[in-house]
Hints:
Oligomer: single chain
CATH superfamily of the largest domain: Ribonuclease H-like superfamily/Ribonuclease H
Largest sheet: 5 strands, mixed
Amino acid sequence: xxxxxxxxxxxxxxxxxxxxxxxxxxxxxxxxxxxxxxxxxxxxxxxxxxxxxxxxxxxxxxxxxxxxxxxxxxxxxxxxxxxxxxxxxxxxxxxxxxxxxxxxxxxxxxxxxxxxxxxxxxxxxxxxxxxxxxxxxxxxxxxxxxxxxxxxxxxxxxxxxxxxxxxxxxxxxxxxxxxxxxxxxxxxxxxxxxxxxxxxxxxxxxxxxxxxxxxxxxxxxxxxxxxxxxxxxxxxxxxxxxxxxxxxxxxxxxxxxxxxxxxxxxxxxxxxxxxxxxxxxxxxxxxxxxxxxxxxxxxxxxxxxxxxxxxxxxxxxxxxxxxxxxxxxxxxxxxxxxxxxxxxxxxxxxxxxxxxxxxxxxxxxxxxxxxxxxxxxxxxxxxxxxxxxxxxxxxxxxxxxxxxxxxxxxxxxxxxxxxxxxxxxxxxxxxxxxxxxxxxxxxxxxxxxxxxxxxxxxxxxxxxxxxxxxxxxxxxxxxxxxxxxxxxxxxxxxxxxxxxxxxxxxxxxxxxxxxxxxxxxxxxxxxxxxxxxxxxxxxxxxxxxxxxxxxxxxxxxxxxxxxxxxxxxxxxxxxxxxxxxxxxxxxxxxxxxxxxxxxxxxxxxxxxxxxxxxxxxxxxxxxxxxxxxxxxxxxxxxxxxxxxxxxxxxxxxxxxxxxxxxxxxxxxxxxxxxxxxxxxxxxxxxxxxxxxxxxxxxxxxxxxxxxxxxxxxxxxxxxxxxxxxxxxxxxxxxxxxxxxxxxxxxxxxxxxxxxxxxxxxxxxxxxxxxxxxxxxxxxxxxxxxxxxxxxxxxxxxxxxxxxxxxxxxxxxxxxxxxxxxxxxxxxxxxxxxxxxxxxxxxxxxxxxxxxxxxxxxxxxxxxxxxxxxxxxxxxxxxxxxxxxxxxxxxxxxxxxxxxxxxxxxxxxxxxxxxxxxxxxxxxxxxxxxxxxxxxxxxxxxxxxxxxxxxxxxxxxx
Length: 957
């Protein structure tokens, strides 16, 4: 928009001169969204004057509807803009900087914004040359005019912009301010939003291409295609971002947009002497007073180490080749794959183009070599060893191949062409433009000196002894010695250190990326449990070998670094893991697994909050509040394993109940059929004289089972049961059989019973003494109840739970009274016990028989009982088992959460729980007695669940 100054015209009439307000000016301000009252204040006239001019020019008083969408669609668009973008002053002060978040792929963002927060330009380029930044700056000044001052960093890419500003305003007015990025806050704040809403998307896409090995940042072909496909997409995204930013309302500016604030600033200072404003209002204005050179002014500090060089692409396509690429690949095509498909297509086309070029250049090279061989046979060097003129002509008329591209004839200097001419003992060598010449052709006998030969010049001796020595060792393949020689040079040492720092920074960036996340990112409860230092160190060795080598060399005293050195009880693996975690967390706060582990150790040891605060400042732990939140997260699923055990038992019991119900519906009297079941393999063997049976259709059987089970019928479970039963039958129906058949099926299912578990509980007593006792503050005696769940190691699925071993009426006296054989067996069982006592108490026997004494009496479960018990901690209940009502609450909680039960919801909405399996409750003698009392008190309950009969107390002493 063109900004006009306010001028007056004299009509040679009485009264004030008439103000000249153009129609274009009013329409331009109105198009920016300014109200008429705001326009009058900006122009310094009354609202009535603006209204008269508006009516005279025929400008409508209200905005015309420029979008045919409904209010709901507008609300949706506004909602989307607020979700995507954040809550986002005149030309006196500008900010210029570069964005290096995508520098890995040689993409740089050049940007400048003004004090009004207007983004003047955002552009992505493949380089950061000063000419590129100046071109973007000059393009922006055509729209937003020149700022009075520009603030930049120390980078040399801003040199041309600074020179342009100095040529325009002169050094005396100090138009260019350089300094650290902390003083360039407006543009640094802008980079945050650019990174979040633009750069992050493309950064993730590029890392994804690297992860699937479609992109190599060191491959020139991949980089060229990456720039070709994604540079237009990136610039399009930046243009949308700039338009959105410049037109979003600012809450701190009463809802005005940055572009409105920028425009209003010119009119507010239209009558001032500010150079930046007067230049816009009057293009012919020149402030000669401020232009000049201050001889006594300070000289700017020369910065020599603030240049980030972005190398140019080595691939250069001709006009025809580039046209072929654009005709077959559109970089802005919507491939519904974030540009990945377009990238792959363009890459294939470029490879085809380069292969065709390579075939052509190889033909040209073969032609030159043929000409050269013919020249060697007819031309010899002169007496001074100079190259004959015809060889020079051949050089000028030939082409070389460099990086896959044809060069001009005058640039032939790539390949070394060695022509040997027999003329006494002399040799003639045509070298490349820069090549090393050893005075001896024998590799084993090192030369006494090293010379550098440039085409058509005399050889230059390498004077520096270190360089000469290093070159000799490189030629002979002794790279380690060459590195040791160059390491003594401070320049080389500093360059090598910078290179190592860059590589370590790149490795750490890859470790912190989301493309292939590190185990340090998994701070979930399972991640904290599974984390170990060995796995972390192995990850460092694989993903960041240089970073790991530095840490290992710092932690271990071994020269080869191949083994961990345990000194003073310290494991270097743990030290490396903790050090790497602290360093990576300083770079990326999400790499916090080790910090959480250390914080949990502090919490377990009862550390105070000050310890957490100090650990946060050191960067090794998380805060106290975060630690408590993580502990709560870890404790959410504390009983998940026990609930899984419970679920398996419930499923098995319900499955068995369905089998028994099918048995009731299908069984016929044994007189009608004759079959027998092998008790071990549970296979059904019909006899030869089996009577014919009547089949029951599956649908009919389902209706019968559903009628018998009522509200306890489960459709999904019934389908599983019928599939299991059909394995013993044929056809689409289940034949009516006798009880032996179904008993075999049920016994087969019982053998697959999962292991049971038992609850072990005991009381927890604590006595807290009050320092100053009173009637309101007595000493506290706390009684709580803690429980653990222990899984049974032996599954006794063959034992019955609902039948006694034998009938009491048929029990004979000799079966329970000791007999002579029982006494003999008892004495035999005492032998291992006596042997242990004798060997332990008599030293002579201990020396001779300690290896043969039986410490463990073997039995069929010996191997199983040697395994570690699977134990899971349960909650700590704030209940006192000494009180009968609270002991009832403890048993009721066990029944509600840990006892395998079947909950049935009836049609009237009522619920009922049926015990499927009983569990043992172990404890001391007092716990056992206190558990039986609530069961006796609930003996009048309607169901076994209400009578608390699902628990069988036992003594663990």
